[in-house]
Specification:
Blueprint lengths: L1 E2 L4 E2 L3 H14 L9 H17 L2 E6 L4 H9 L3 E3 L1 H10 L4 E5 L2 H10 L4 E3 L8 H4 L3 H9 L4 E6 L4 H5 L3 E3 L4 H10 L3 E5 L2 H11 L3 E3 L12 H10 L4 E4 L5 H4 L4 E2 L2 H10 L4 E5 L5 H7 L4 E4 L23 H10 L8 H22 L1
Parallel strand pairs: 3-4, 3-5, 5-6, 7-8, 7-9, 9-10, 11-12, 11-13, 13-14
Antiparallel strand pairs: 1-2
Bound molecules: iron/sulfur cluster.
Pathway: Cofactor biosynthesis; NAD(+) biosynthesis; quinolinate from iminoaspartate: step 1/1
GO biological process, one term: 'de novo' NAD+ biosynthetic process from L-aspartate
Keywords: 4Fe-4S, Cytoplasm, Iron, Iron-sulfur, Metal-binding, Pyridine nucleotide biosynthesis, Transferase
Length: about 350
């Protein structure tokens, strides 16, 4: 492990290699193309299976638009990870079909152990989750026993079980402010960019793990500035998993839900959006009259491994959703003892964010 005044560089080459290996295997994400008739047929079939299995579809904003449309058309939910967790927990369905990535399925199981949690693919993971292996993380936490451990939702159940708090980007700043007001020193994992953003904003004492989201890490301020020169009246919306230099050129910084809200409240008619392009489906619904433009990922220094679309989110498709419902397979399991421990920091977050809304 290497320490520095800026944070802690603990992500070893093995973890980085695991992320790279996943990316190499996946290739570039493909959009899903269906004829109208085929789409309608798939929607009808899936709707019938959802009814039969007493199931509901919970989808993330970064899924393909057709999956989001299906969730809406069948009484499910399209949301950020915090709202997905709440919706799944409170919905009376016996089965939740979670269209997203693995940690979202695990979170659903932790909060709703009595429900069957299915995922269209069990291969869909997240570079933040991959980049925070529980053994190394536990070692790191054990080396700083006087620190409160705060982890982002994008982590495994085992990492959550080692944490005092789980947060999502919708409530992270407020929770860190709260902990800082109590004089607590904080370990933050795994996203270094979000951690740095919160640290700058709150001035809290934080040690940062050095994970990163492969989608947001690709945005570059130079590319965005060049695009802004083409659209001088546009607002720039940035997710805080992006590098600090990108956050610095933003008109609004926030979680997916907060960016959708910003698109509505900002007066500009054109938005340059630096987050996964899956968000355009919901954002355009909220501001049908505005023009939305993808922030470039091919600016100076970018390698465009993601092209603003998460390769793991792209693995959720209609056929996968139909298959899991027909065969009731690809179920998420979490060890009961682990689940109990991981539930505590999750419950803390849900209680805090519920109090925030009152
Ligand atoms: S977009 Fe980034 S943070 Fe979200 S699931 Fe994909 S890799 Fe993880």
């Amino acid at each position: 492990m290497k320490g520095s005044s800026q944070g802690i560089d603990v992500l070893d080459q093995d973890a980085k290699a695991i992320v790279q290996q996943h990316l190499d295997q996946l290739g570039a994400p493909q959009g899903q193309v269906h004829t109208d008739a085929h789409k309608q047929q798939m929607f009808e079939q899936i709707k019938a299976e959802l009814l039969k299995q007493e199931a509901v579809l919970v989808a993330h904003y970064y899924c393909d638009p057709i999956v989001q449309e299906l969730a809406e058309a069948t009484g499910g939910c399209v949301a950020d990870s915090l709202e997905m967790a709440r919706f799944g927990r409170d919905h009376p369905a016996k089965t939740l079909v979670v269209a997203g990535v693995k940690f979202m399925g695990e979170t659903a199981k932790i909060l709703s152990p009595e429900k069957t949690i299915l995922m269209p693919t069990l291969e869909a993971t997240c570079s933040l989750d991959l980049g925070c292996p529980v053994d190394q993380f536990t070692q790191f936490c054990d080396a700083h026993p006087d620190h409160t451990v705060v982890v982002y939702a994008n982590t495994s159940a085992a990492v959550k079980a080692r944490a005092d708090w789980v947060v999502t980007s919708s409530c992270a700043v407020e929770i860190i402010e709260h902990l800082d007001s109590l004089g607590e020193k904080i370990i933050w994992a795994p996203d270094q960019h979000l951690g740095r953003y919160i640290k700058n904003k709150t001035k809290a004492e934080m040690l940062l793990w050095d994970g990163a989201c492969i989608v947001h890490e690709e945005f570059r301020s130079r590319g965005i500035e060049k695009m802004r020169a083409l659209y001088p009246d546009a607002a720039v919306l940035v997710h805080p998993e992006s590098p600090m230099s990108v956050i610095a050129v933003a008109d609004a910084v926030g979680s997916t839900s907060q960016l959708i809200q910003a698109a509505k409240t900002l007066p500009q008619q054109t938005m340059i959006v630096a987050t996964d392009r899956g968000i355009f489906y919901k954002m355009q619904q909220v501001v049908p009259e505005k023009t939305l433009i993808e922030a470039p990922t091919a600016g100076e220094g970018a390698t465009c491994r993601s092209c603003a679309h998460c390769p793991w989110m792209a693995m959720n498709d209609l056929q996968g959703i139909l298959d899991v419902l027909q065969h009731m397979h690809q179920e998420i399991h979490v060890d009961p003892a682990l689940r109990e421990r991981a539930k505590q920091p999750l419950d803390r977050m849900l209680a805090f964010s519920a109090a925030m809304q009152r």
